[in-house]
Amino acid sequence: MKSQTHRRNVWTTLISIVLLAYAVLVAYPMVWLLLASLKSSRELFENPWGIPSHPHLVNFLNAWTKAGIGRYFINSVFVTTVSMFFILVIGSMAAYALARYAFRGRGVIQTAFTSGMMFPVFLGIVPLFLLLRRLGMWDNYLGLITVYVAYSLSFTVFVLTGFFRQLPGELAEAGLIDGCSEYTVFLRIMFPLAKPGLIAAGIFNFFGIWNEYPLALVIIASENLRTLPLGIANLLMVQHYETDWGALFAGLVIVMVPTLIVYLVFQRQITEGLTAGALKA
User: Fold this and answer.
1) DSSP characters for the chain?
2) pLDDT at 1
3) Are 59 and 37 within 8 A, CB to CB?
4) How many CB atoms lie within 10 A of CB 224?
5) Are 30 and 256 spatial neighbours (Cβ–Cβ below 8 Å)?
6) Residue 236: which pLDDT band, with cuts at 50, 70 and 90?
7) pLDDT tens by residue, 125-182
8) CATH number among 1.10.3720.10, 1.10.8.50, 3.30.70.120, 3.30.429.10, domain 66-280
9) Per-domain residue ranges of the chain
10) Contacts of 107 (CB under 8 A, 6+ apart)
11) What share of the chain in percent tops pLDDT 90?
């Protein structure tokens, strides 16, 4: 008995050490990036691993104004917000219909949504470019948001279908008996009950859209319409001819902060949502 307890304690200690080492490996690059954003370009080369002697907060001001990160940040907020709204609304409606109603072709439609997650983004870039040019949706937010919604629906429907499938059908029946329409039952009863799945799907879609680069690179050409990933890539190319590396790292911190905030605020909802979805599916 003692030997089993000792062995268990040893394994627990080893696992804790491994997890701690992994946490350090993950956190250190972010900490180094934050420290680098507070250094001057000269100090970055003279003392790349140390703590900044005098924090250069002006790096963030230069990144926000001179490098145009502020404009790109607002563009990303707009594109991400609008895209997520349509993704969650359309995805929840499709998932609810697939989960709660039996109709001819339901399996084919569900398989089509699931198969969409296996479709590589790069495989569709050229056809998307040609299609959007022909439809007049190239180099504008309408085309970019439409593509983001289309690419994100597969994952969203896949996640939400499991939630809607396991919700008590008696609640929907009670709503219909009380005189509610199918739309009212969905919006006022079933949709709120799927909140864990909506949060989980919404956060993962936020991460994907906020950091998305290749589709935005192909669809957006105007400088004033660029999103943050495009702006950071442009800033990186500019730094090959200039020396304000502090502004570059400050721009990277500006990109990173929203995703960290979202994850820290909703980390419990992410875990609970995905776990519940796995159990219910």
Assistant:
1) -HHHHHHHHHHHHHHHHHHHHHHHHHHHHHHHHHHHTTS-HHHHHHSSSS--SS--THHHHHHHTTT-HHHHHHHHHHHHHHHHHHHHHHHHHHHHHHHH---TTHHHHHHHHHHHTTS-TGGGHHHHHHHHHHHT-TTSHHHHHHHHHHHHHHHHHHHHHHHHHHS-HHHHHHHHHTT--HHHHIIIIIHHHTHHHHHHHHHHHHHHHHT--HHHHHH---GGG--HHHHHHHHHHHTTT---HHHHHHHHHHHHHHHHHHHHHHHHHHHHHHHHHHHH-
2) 56
3) yes
4) 9
5) yes
6) confident
7) 889 999 999 999 999 999 999 999 999 999 999 989 888 888 887 888 888 888 888 8
8) 1.10.3720.10
9) 2-36, 66-280
10) none
11) 36
d(CA 98, CA 96): 5
Q: φ and ψ at 149, to 5 degrees?
A: -65, -45
Nearest to 149 by CA among 197, 72, 85, 75: 85
Question: What does the pLDDT average to over 92-106?
Answer: 89
Place of tokens 């594109």: 79
Per-residue burial over 99-121, b = 16 or more CB atoms within 10 Å of its CB, e = otherwise: bbeeeeeeeeebeebeebeeeee
Query: In whole angstroms, what separates CA 143 from the centre of its chain?
Result: 19
d(CA 116, CA 155): 8
- Average pLDDT on 18-35 reads 90
